[in-house]
Amino acid sequence: MKLPRQFFAPLAIGAPAPLRELPVRLERMIHFVPPHLDKLRAKVPELARQVDVVLGNLEDAIPVEAKQAARAGFIAMAKAVDYGATGLWTRINALNSPWALDDVTEIVGAVGDRLDVIMLPKVDGPWDIHYLDQLLAQLEARHKIKKPILIHAILETAQGVNNVEAIASASPRMHGMSLGPADLAASRAMKTTRVGGGHPEYKVIADAQGEAPRAAYQQDLWHYTIAKMVDACAAAGIKPFYGPFGDFSDAAACEAQFRNAFLMGCLGAWSLHPSQIAIAKTVFSPDPAEVAFAKKIVAAMPDGAGAVMIDGKMQDDATWKQAKVLLDLARLVAAKDPEMGARYAL
Ligand code: GLV
Ligand code: MG
Question: How far is Cα 239 from Cα 175, in angstroms, rounded to an integer?
Answer without folding.
Answer: 6
